[in-house]
Amino acid sequence: MPELTYREAVRDALSSAMRSDDEVFIMGEDIAEMGGSMGVTQGMLAEFGPERVRNTPISEIAIVGTGIGAAMQGMRPVVEIMYQDFLTLSMEQLVNQAAKHRTMSGGQLKVPLTIRTQGGAGWSPGAQHAQQLESWFVHVPGLKVVFPSTPEDVRGLLWSSIYDDNTVIFFEHRLLYPLKGPVPDEIEPIPLGKARVMRDGSDVTVIAIGRMVPEALQAAEEAAKEGISVEVIDPRTLLPLDEETIIASVKKTTRAVTAHEAVTRGGFGAELAAVIQQGAFDYLDAPIERVGAKFAPLAFAPAMEQWVVPHAADVLEAVKRTVARS
Amino acid sequence: MAKVEDKPEGARAGRSALSDERLRELFREMLLIRRFEEKVEERFRAGELPGFLHVAIGQEAVASGVMAALEPDDVIASTHRAHGHTIAKGTHVNAVMAELYGKQEGCSGGYGGSMHLYDLAKGNLGANAVVGGGLPAITGAALAFQFRKQPRVAVAFFGDGATNTGTFHESLNLAQLWKVPALFVLEMNAWAESTPMSQHAPIEDFAQRAVAFGMRSIDVDGQNVEDVYEATRKARQHAVSGQGPVFLNIRTYRLVGHYIGDPQVYREKSELEELRETKDPIELLRGRLRIGDDEFEALDTEIEAIVEGSVEFAKAGTDPKPEDALKYVYA
Q1: Contact partners, residue A87, CB within 8 Å, separation at least 6
Q2: Whether pLDDT at B10 is above 50
Q3: Which residues of chain B from 133 to 192 reach within 8 Å of chain A, CB to CB?
Q4: Is this structure's pTM higher than 0.90?
């Protein structure tokens, strides 16, 4: 199997779709000559030209809204919102327009738009360039939400998102971009709504997303040294959610920990906990533990930043708390 | 160089490319919209229509004049005041009325209601209940036409209130930057709900906002359907020829309240009465076409019957099953 970085895998999915389909194009801030602020679209301008690799003004309403309009005409735009913090500027278009046109029109319209965005703490970007806002969008009927953690998944899921007939908010994590991993020779589309069991285990299930997937795997290694067997599941798609895989795992392990970098309160872990208690209440041997960031806008100084966001050690502690109960 | 233009030449000279016959068709359509809106008011007050409603009495010439200059596969996005636009774009009054009654036979299948009238087959991409909300998608639809080299235009309707939103400014900026074939149709009725222009904008001439983006703007008398038609025709030619979007700065009058039942405490009764006497686009066109009482009565009787028929059609329609509410969440 060839290896790609997470960044290269995103680029490969975009470029492959654009090579095979004239109706796919990308637009966003600084994505052309500069190749995107994270370098994801580097080289794409040279291959596809300025019509299909479109630099936009700093204008998030228009970036998303123009994507909606082109998608309603049957094109498959992929728009980039440089940092997910800036999704807040386009919320009206996402929540009131993209998510609702299909229902409001009685099924006449489709909005096959993909919004790529990224973020994440760990490099002192401060409070307005590092939030994890994925749970906001899980609350909106009509949107799909994807957050892959490996090169293989990010490539296969981005392809599926582009060819999904609905609007997909596609989250990437900044710290995952340089990570390398094996990918199939050819792009293999991964269906939305299917979780991946990243590591088998029998004592505790950790359901982790984004950067917390590698952190959870590290915690599982540590736990194994202490005789605790941890299963790690990456839902990959948050909406729709593969509840079946998660519930089956918790029934097996009888304990659950959720882990994301977003603040714990109101985070996706709360939804996971609700799904687990509904589906596996009689199997649980301990309260469901939630790992996430502390409830504060992210402070700048590295010491404060690192203290606010969760790490493998936090997952390990949570795992131990669940085991200690029984 | 963008500039604010005077009235179109044809209209200024008192004539347009519209034949007498075509003008009479437009007169008929405007009267149909008027009688439809009056019927909607009546049925709403009778308690038959759920939700809340905005009617476009006084603005009929804008809907009819703009649509008359469009081709069938041009697309529009409408506003919360959408009934007239939808009828003029070709949706049958039965389908519009059925939507207001929440029936499956409605143009949005009962999913949308008055503020979300859609008819994709007729090029209606939907009315929007968020002021300014439909503009970015019109820039995007026009971008798709540009990509595909199709000679089509995408048309956004909005009021003066919408010109204060960021959505408006971002949509116009990008449309002009990329020179996409879009028309931005301002229905300047001088009211943002109950708030007069003097309280919502620091300028009086909204064309300045388009000109600021380098966009061509045309001033239009919205009570004169020929003027609206001529300006739109000219604007459409400009847009499909690749010269970029056009702003239609249309002065019109809302001869009713913001919503049905609005007591309009914010304006004098006498002001409204005077406007109704002097600015009614249907009366103005009737005068130009010299339609006598007998002819008018005959036409009106025919239209009243069509509108009454739409109510009967709607009432006889199918109620959606409650669980159908989940049917179209995802494609």
Answers
A1: A60, A81, A94, A115, A117, A133, A169
A2: no
A3: 133-145, 147, 154, 166-167, 170-171, 173-174, 177
A4: yes
